[in-house]
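Progress against Task 2.4 (sequence-to-structure conversion) is shown through the following example record, which the project officer requested during the mid-term review.
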Amino acid sequence: MFESLSERLQSTIRDISGKGKISEDNMNEALREIRRALLEADVSLKVVKVFISSIKDKALGEEVLKSVTPGQQLVKIVHDELVNLLGGNNVSISTEGKPNIIMLFGLQGSGKTTTAAKLALRIRKNGRNPLLVAADVYRPAAVKQLQSLGKQVTIPVYAEEGNQDVRKIVSSAVQHAKDEGYNTVIVDTAGRLQIDTELMAELVILDRLFEPAEKLLVIDSMMGQEAVNVARTFDEQLGITGLVITKLDGDARGGAALSVAYSTEKPVKFVGMGEKLDALEPFYPERMVQRILGMGDIVSLVERAQQAIDIDEARELEKKIRSKDFSLEDFMKMQKQMKSLGSMDQILGMLPIPGISKSDKDKMATVGESQLKKIEACINSMTLKERQKPEIINASRKRRIAAGSGTPLPELNRFLKDFENMRKMMRKMTDMMKSGKNPMKGLSIPPGMRGKFPGF
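Structure tokens generated for the chain above:
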């Protein structure tokens, strides 16, 4: 997501930061590179012009050209303008209405039906009681698709197979929600291959009859600049309340998200970050910009950890790590918890690692994933007793494990040695902490980090 834009912007900022003195000429050169980066990311020309003009007014001011840290000043300006471009602040979804009605619409293939199920799952996690409504009566198998997704997330789906009267279906669904105690109704409306009068007329009628609290337009991020025209048309006819950008994880450019948010002046409320039904995230402009500029997104990583990791199991693992009982079985549990946070490249994208290019991050992720798979294969080839007490693994056991996992014997020996060294280091640090000593004392700390941690 935003990979090409992110790499180009970071490279441009690094170049200008490395110059001894910032002049109007090299600042203009940097702005040209930023303009190029945005256009290559498929951001619409109109949006690019406004964005560059706004940066130029601030970047060529006295406070930047005469600043001691012009590179940092430029980063701040680009950061602030990108945040504004993406809507400024996170806007949460409305819960107004009894029941609260959310209507989803968009073109066919945008991921609307899947988004309906994802949204229902997220809303339920927030304490709501949702009902999905199959109001796409034209696309073959649309009703069955929603019913299948509803089963996967154990959320009921209201459908009237054979009935083509969308108004009656939604009306009956709303009444059903009132009768059965569902406080949120999510309506999956029909999409089309392109915008047409019939589609809009049906949606306008539903809007006027049921006055939904949310009218969310689902946009495929890979549509590129056409997304702007689609969004404007829907907004003019229906007055959308927000946007959901799907398939953002698979779009290296991401220009649609930037263009649509600015052009409609409507907030992006959610982004689809994968095929799994829990891969729908609230959209935070500032966090997204921090990722684009290589500043990481620790807040989102912590939130993801809070949702994915079992706290009791994590505490139990922490106790094991501090004791002599930490085993390869525990190591595998720890790896499982790490996997629940996402893939290695997703985690690296959320960590602030300045100065590292996308290609370097990709290499780190690829090597890391490959290494973890090898380690898993080794541990899975061990008996339960060997996993719990790795010290019993002698030469003959090693040969058997190496053959069973397809791992060269020297690699297996290296992994077992590294694991034992890690256990020794953890025990040593724990003993030092118990005795009141600082386990980090004596380590060489980079000058920029001194004073950042207590005890140094």
